[in-house]
């Protein structure tokens, strides 16, 4: 009998891949090979072809659980770093991208999906548009670590990617609930989804605020040791997610709101998040490994020209046009706007949402979503991963010649976020203060 669970063999193979990447990561970084690229290929190699001695299932509950926990940890840590006080210091451009650009991207993606996959209906098209809308700056860490790119531009991209997956989560859940309700001819799914989202937000806010206050008090009183404070922050992230699941509300929203609440009252969130980010990074690599192992081949087999066209449009005009519209009047140079528009990699959030959709929807609808998401993410991993370093260099040289008074060179408050480099390090200080060339 073939074992399709994450057993000892699968664990051993993944550990060997992780060890191998640790030995060659610096060399791969020089060749612009990112960690997601490598683990997608490794996951594909050990499950298919002559080296295919690991057998995993697309519908494995273990894979889905690990993927969901990975996203929850990333949502919490990213939201914690973008605390309200730090964001308020330079919120204009990120607010444009998140409040105008993201909704327009979801709407445009939904319309394209509806035109290409009309049989699935409007709810499915809207879900697909929302699934592929969030960006993941970790897929192009070369840009975040390249000091030739103005600090404010790097900060804008990092803040956007740190928040848009959490903001997109309610849309994904509502639209999936609508699609499931349409399948079952029931309208109760949408109302329940709204309640779940609000409940998750309440639980997240409570856990983040209370946990942050308790941790601050314990630190000042000398009760909390520095070696265990990072573990306490990890516990807050897991607790917000788990309590939401226990109360049948949305765990992703709880983790995201919990991170915002914790970061807004914790002045040392950056220092306390390293362990949480380390665990999240490990689980993220598991997700990319699983993407290559269980999602890539079924997705490509079920994808046709419509999925390919959807992916190309999603990575280009569906992203770039809303970004351009949202930045009208911002004062940014047109090349900067194009740079921000192109750099919208689709990563972890899209993979996890796609996995959930494929596991929840009816077979025909699941096939459509899986094919479109897999092609979009696979193209993004290749295109954005390969173009990040060259474009960073070219844009950096162009930006250096811009007038020092332009918004690109405005002072950017320090705000470090998760940005996984190919060598496994999180880039710190990705938005150091910059006051022009």
Brief overview:
72% of the residues lie in helices and 0% in strands. The chain has 437 residues and is mainly α.
What does this structure look like?
The protein is 72% helix and 0% strand. The chain is an all-alpha fold and 437 residues long. Helix 3 (61-81) runs antiparallel to helix 17, helix 10 packs antiparallel against helix 11 and helix 16 runs antiparallel to helix 18 (363-400). The model is unreliable at 419-437 (pLDDT under 50).
List keywords for this structure.
0% strand, Na+/H+ antiporter like fold, disordered C terminus, 437 residues, mainly alpha
Distinct helical segment count = 18
For the termini, the CA-CA separation is 64 Å
Q: What structural class is derived from the secondary structure elements?
A: mainly alpha
What overall form do the CA principal axes indicate?
globular
CATH architectural name: Up-down Bundle
Mean pLDDT: 86
Q: At the third CATH level, what is the topology name?
A: Na+/H+ antiporter like fold
């Amino acid at each position: 009998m073939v074992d399709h669970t994450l057993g000892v063999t699968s664990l051993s193979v993944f550990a060997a891949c992780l060890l191998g990447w640790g030995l060659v990561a610096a060399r791969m970084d020089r060749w612009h090979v990112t960690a997601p690229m490598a683990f997608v290929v490794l996951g594909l190699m050990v499950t298919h072809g002559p080296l295919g001695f690991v057998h995993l299932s697309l519908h494995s509950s273990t894979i889905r659980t690990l993927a969901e926990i990975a996203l929850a940890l990333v949502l919490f840590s990213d939201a914690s770093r973008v605390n309200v006080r730090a964001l308020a210091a330079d919120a204009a451009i990120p607010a444009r991208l998140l409040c105008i650009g993201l909704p327009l991207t979801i709407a445009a993606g939904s319309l394209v999906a509806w035109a290409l996959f009309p049989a699935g209906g409007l709810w499915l098209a809207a879900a697909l548009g929302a699934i592929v809308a969030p960006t993941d700056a970790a897929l192009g860490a070369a840009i975040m670590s390249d000091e030739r790119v103005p600090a404010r531009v790097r900060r804008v991209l990092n803040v956007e990617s740190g928040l848009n997956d959490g903001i997109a989560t309610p849309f994904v859940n509502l639209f999936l609930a609508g699609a499931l309700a349409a399948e079952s001819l029931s309208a109760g799914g949408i109302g329940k989804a709204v309640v779940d989202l609000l409940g998750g937000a309440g639980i997240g806010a409570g856990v983040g605020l209370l946990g942050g206050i308790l941790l601050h008090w314990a630190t000042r009183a000398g009760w909390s040791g520095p070696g265990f404070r990072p573990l306490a922050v990890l516990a807050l992230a897991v607790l917000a997610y788990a309590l939401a699941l226990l109360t049948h509300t949305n765990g992703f929203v709880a983790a995201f709101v919990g991170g915002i609440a914790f970061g807004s009252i914790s002045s040392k969130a950056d220092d306390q998040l390293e362990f949480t980010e380390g665990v999240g990074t490990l689980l993220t690599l598991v997700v990319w490994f699983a993407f290559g192992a269980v999602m890539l081949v079924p997705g490509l087999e079920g994808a046709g020209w419509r999925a390919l066209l959807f992916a190309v449009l999603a990575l280009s005009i569906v992203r770039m046009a809303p970004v351009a519209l949202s930045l009208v009047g911002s004062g940014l140079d047109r090349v900067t706007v194009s740079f921000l528009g192109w750099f919208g990699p689709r990563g972890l959030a899209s993979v996890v949402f796609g996995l959930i959709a494929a596991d929840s929807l009816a077979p025909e609808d699941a096939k459509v979503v899986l094919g479109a998401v897999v092609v979009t993410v696979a193209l993004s991993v290749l295109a954005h991963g390969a173009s990040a370093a060259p474009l960073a260099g070219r844009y950096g040289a162009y930006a250096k010649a811009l007038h020092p008074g332009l918004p690109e060179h405005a002072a950017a408050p320090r705000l470090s976020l998760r940005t996984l480099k190919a060598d496994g390090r999180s880039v710190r200080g990705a938005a150091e203060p910059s006051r022009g060339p």
